[in-house]
Amino acid sequence: xxxxxxxxxxxxxxxxxxxxxxxxxxxxxxMLAFWHTxxxxxxxxxxxxxxxxxxxxxxxxxxxxxxxxxxxxxxxLAEFPLYPILLVLALLQLTGKYRTFAEAGDGxxxxxxxxxxxxxxxxxxxxxxxxxxxxxxxxxxxLSPVLVPVFGLSAASLAALVLxxxxxxxxxxxxxxxxxxxxxxxxxxxxxxPTGAVFVFGVTALADRAAFDLLLTLLFGAAFLAGAFALxxxxxxxxxxxxxxxxxxxxxxxxxxxxVLMDTMEKKPIPRQSKPILFARSQPLLRHRSVDVDRLAxxxxxxxxxxxxxxxxxxxxxxxxxxxxxxxxxxxxxAVWLVLPFLVVAALRRQWRQWLSEPYxxxxxxxxxxxxxxSRKATAWLAxxxxxxxxxxxxxxxGLAFGGFAWLAAVALLPVGYFWARTVSSLLSSFAASREIKxxxxxxxxx
Length: 447
Fold this sequence. Notes:
Layout (H helix, E strand, L loop, with lengths): L2 H4 L16 H20 L5 H24 L11 H10 L21 H34 L7 H28 L3 H25 L3 H24 L4 H16 L33 H16 L1 H19 L3 H27 L11 H35 L3 H6 L1 H34 L1
Helix pairs in contact: 4-7, 5-6, 6-7, 6-8, 10-13, 11-12, 11-13, 12-13, 12-15, 13-15
């Protein structure tokens, strides 16, 4: 007797992977787990003291400045063209990538099943559209007190612009993903850079033309959405994308927590070229007057310039310092300008200590005097571009505010910035050397 005759009322059990446990539920669980993990990483540094003394005061100051600007905008703002604001919204769409929250274990079964691949692809499409709609809506809402009464946009036109930019950003994420799948290395960047420039200026030009026409804006947005659908259908036909999706997820997670875990990520990025792009012949950056000091300083400077992750930190500091000098009154900006080199040199000192602790460099023994002098010289030269750019910004502000002989006084900030950067580097290097000597003496006494 067969099994069906013995159990006539029994029904075949539905597979959990294809039935109750669908691709939509798994995608939602992975998305929530991802953002929960990111939040737990940020909770490492966002304790109550940081929130009380840094986050909350910064939020109050930022909200107050925003409120004052929106209540009393500059008199000539109405004559300001709308194009730069539309350009900023277009540049915002370049951020983010097409994501499916793929994991390495998906290659065992899930990624081999066409239904699961289609489900994750469509959910990634919906997630990308919703996230871009949310981010663009928040930025547009923050700018609405200026866009609506000053520039004359209606609420409906502003909402249509949000939908238009979200659709354009979604199409760009899929186009960027398509380029990343087809090309690698310099070919990828050679394709992305001109394509991104055409996208930004094209989206801005269409938005500038249709900003006050509701139907035309929605029509352009529908065209971008149709293009995104077409790119998604091409994406579904492409096989062998699992490793690319995993790399995208790893890069997304790293970009969100890199500032929190910068001191724990001691492993250097894997080199992708047989020789470095910059200084391939290893030519010296500094004149070697002192063999050991200049050679050590020169090697570290080239290491910093060649590594994008270290340069990115310096660029972030440059941007934050520029905002700190551009927003406050000029007397406060001068005081901030004198303090900013300590931040730059402290960040460079941390990179210097990590570099000296690498396994290869640990094989060499340097005297304390050589390390101190090399650190002082290298940090001073690397901090000098920041200091001179900030001095130039402050000089322009002083000259525009006071005019006349103030321009001559402002020009004097450039040499002052040069000597002040060298002084701060010497101070922090000497302080670090004295602390190291004190720690070694205390450890020797304990032993």
